[in-house]
Amino acid sequence: MIQKGYGCAFGGGTIINAIAAWKGCAFATEMKTYAQVIVSEPGNIGPVVSGRNLNDSGMNPYLMERCVELVFEKMDCRKSARVLTKSVIPAAGGLKSSSAAANSCVLAALDALGYLDEIGVGRSIDPLDVVQWGVAAAKDAKVTITGAFDDACASFFGGVALTDNRKMELISRKTFDYDVLILNPNQRAHSADANVSRSVLLKDLVEIAFDLAKDEQYEKAMKLNGLLYCGALGFDPEPALCAMELGKEFGIVSGLSGTGPSFITLFPLGKTPDEINRLTQLKQDVRSKWISLYPDSRIFDTKTCNGGAVSESLIFSKKMRAEQKDLIDWV
């Protein structure tokens, strides 16, 4: 019998990159990755898991496959599976594409086996265990240096997550409400290829930024982190600086996300019609400036997200089952 499962998780942005000090802080955005797992009986050679990214057929599917394999190992399932993903999140852009892929694939595998609604505090599956399975798969796939537990928690729980990645500890999770503009230059920067030795030189300063985030001074922390890692990783900070200069009236904050190359700018939510109009114009001004600097770049206009991946996956699964659709046919 063929069993199908569906999952969904969020992309995000960086407040503190964990490479230097193994302590990180990240937030979720409304950009999503969707996954489908199709379970079947094993063939003559035994259980096999195969994967495919529907946005990029040339992308290495091992992370997706390893997520499903780990879930099957945990649940003592000895069947074969096919895993598919579809996403609007650019790969290798510092926008948490790997965490979103891992979380969505783990959730889709659990859904296929009938365990999705068993995830929760006090239920049979601890949510942090689910996050850690995705992190373990990311380490096995060598797409991360620290395990990106901060990114994974933000992608899974929504809001802003503060973590100790060495201890795999979620220190805090708070709501986080901003409009978000993302500059994604036409290049890739894989996290696992980042210049760790130079980043570690800035550990003491990154820890100052982390302490700011711990005190919920997220804007200051993000600004400091972005400038530090631009220096360590060789990125021109101009996209962040020009955004902050244009938005100084509102105290706009902008910084490098992950190990780049993307930059993220946070805009406060307007409280009056006049303020909303001025922020809308400001966003357009930042967009125009970025395009003049990077004509071949992509710019994404989104929001932070405070919802969780489990509830989003339950909604997505119900919809796909009701419509009897596969991910490959779904837009």
Automatic annotation (TrEMBL):
- Keywords from the named record: Amino-acid biosynthesis, Aromatic amino acid biosynthesis, ATP-binding, Cytoplasm, Kinase, Nucleotide-binding, Transferase
- InterPro entries in the cross-refs: GHMP_kinase_N_dom, Ribosomal_Su5_D2-typ_SF, Ribsml_uS5_D2-typ_fold_subgr, SK_arc
Q: What is its main location?
A: cytoplasm
Q: In which pathway does it act?
A: Metabolic intermediate biosynthesis; chorismate biosynthesis; chorismate from D-erythrose 4-phosphate and phosphoenolpyruvate: step 5/7
Compartment annotation:
Cytoplasm
Pfam families linked to this entry = GHMP_kinases_N
Q: Name one GO cellular component term.
A: cytoplasm
Positions contributing to ATP binding? P90, A91, A92, G93, G94, L95, K96, S97, S98, S99, A100
The GHMP kinase N-terminal domain covers 64-159
What's its catalytic activity? shikimate + ATP = 3-phosphoshikimate + ADP + H(+)
State which Enzyme Commission number(s) the record gives.
2.7.1.71
**GO terms classed as biological process:** amino acid biosynthetic process; aromatic amino acid family biosynthetic process; chorismate biosynthetic process
Tell me which domain of life the UniProt entry assigns to the organism this sequence originates from. Answer: Archaea
Q: What is an example of a GO molecular function annotated in this UniProt entry?
A: ATP binding
Q: What class of enzyme is it?
A: transferase
SUPFAM superfamilies (alphabetical): Ribosomal protein S5 domain 2-like
Family per UniProt? Belongs to the GHMP kinase family. Archaeal shikimate kinase subfamily.
Under NCBIfam families, the record lists: Shik_kin_archae
| Protein name, entry field | Shikimate kinase
Gene of this entry: aroK
